Amino acid sequence: MERKKIMTNKKKLKIAAIAIPLLMIGIMIYLFFNFQKKKQKVEALKNIPAFSVKDISGKSIRNSNLPEGNKVLVYFNPDCEYCQAEMNELSEINDKHPDINWIMFTDKPLSEIRAFAKKYKLDAVTNIHWCNDPKSEVYLKFSMTGIPYFLGYNSGNKLVHRSTGAIKIEKVLADFDEK
What we know:
The protein contains 5 helices and 7 strands, in the order H-E-E-E-H-E-H-E-H-E-E-H. It is an alpha/beta fold and 179 residues long. The longest helix is centred in the first third of the chain and has 43 residues, at 2-44. It starts with a helix and ends with a helix. The mean pLDDT is 86.
């Protein structure tokens, strides 16, 4: 009986000795391909992808007619607490950074966008452009993964910042100084 138990244990060890390395190799292959896929998405963002939306005044905003200079593309939601905190911060420091153009996107109705911009006294600021993306095409085109989502591009339209979630606006702006 004892001998049979030892043989069963040896069999289990042999199976484990084969299964564990195969499982580890499978995980490594999966992680490698996921990393490659993520790398391709980031590479696609190195230059501003083509897009077309309308701003709150009905003017067409495209990648080809964005303002010259540094720009930050932000996908937000007026109901998002992080977005609210970040717009509060932006309203306090925007005067110090007139060289940064902010292109704000959301899929919410125009009335909500206007109310949100007005609430933070950013509705009449010339370096902030409020855009409606009703079908979330920008969100999908830029492979965004959360809200708020920030993409910073320098004057040469090269990506210098990418982040999602809560972040200090000053941290976004610091990336323009470093690159």
